[in-house]
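Subject: Protein record for review, amino acid sequence with backbone structure tokens
How to read it: Take the token row as a discrete description of the fold.
Enclosed: The protein record, placed directly beneath this head.
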Amino acid sequence: MATEGASLSQSIKSLASLLKSMNHLVPGVAVVGGLVMIAVAYFAIHTGVMMGFTALVVFIVAVAVYAGTSNYGEAALALVAGLLPVFTVSWDAGTFSVFVAVWAGFTILVFLISSVRLASSREDLYTQAALSLTSPDDYLSMGAAIKAVAEAADCLLDPIERAEVIRIFAYRKLPVRSMGSALEAVDKLSTISRVEPKRVASFVSDVYRVFDPADEDVAAALLDRLYSLIRTSPAAPQEYFEAFDQSRRLILSEKLDSEVFFDALGRGLAAGIPPTEVYEYMLSELA
């Protein structure tokens, strides 16, 4: 129940974040969308409860089809195909009851099946992460520990994204005590840079291994520094992460001090060196 509550809370946060983003991009779009939904529901229901409810269900399904496919033609076809039977069927209590029962049963079963698949995928990711950190005899307790860390993190990543990021941390042998703040750092940097969380997770895990922040304040300061490095770089965030990946061996092997490494990395990108050639540039510069 605690896991379900956490997932619901994360979903609500994600929905709130989406609505805020939409309203920021197009001021008032969330309000207009809500008013349209209310108006459609009002006029649909007032044409007759049974027919109106059925038409409203068709409308919602068509919107869901468009949201999932971004294909107007497919969504419009679903709307028209759904409305035609609504206006041709003579609705009475029997036919309406059958429609509601079948539609509700289908929706509930689909929701349950998708929930089981989601939970199964998430558990598999945590199992893989736990097995990479400990022996097969102790993976259950380790899995419970890293799952608790992931669910306690204050971020808007969905459950699967959290598990995928945690698995990357485990593969990179990041200590469990650092995974919570590192997960929050991935969420913030991914949101700022518009780079997928898994890509950012590889970068954050390496940086955490180098600096090993001891507490939340140190982790927050490290996040500010990472954001500053990415923001001031004359390259796109994706290019910065790629350049870091190409040259990460220099800092992970402690051949270069962190200050020297990030300074040289920034100079290479500023000089127009492609990310794939940054490693050779840094070697030549520091020879």
Summary: Confidence is low (pLDDT under 50) at residues 1-8. The chain has two domains: 2-118, 124-286. Residues 2-118 form one domain. DSSP finds 13 helices and no strands in the chain.
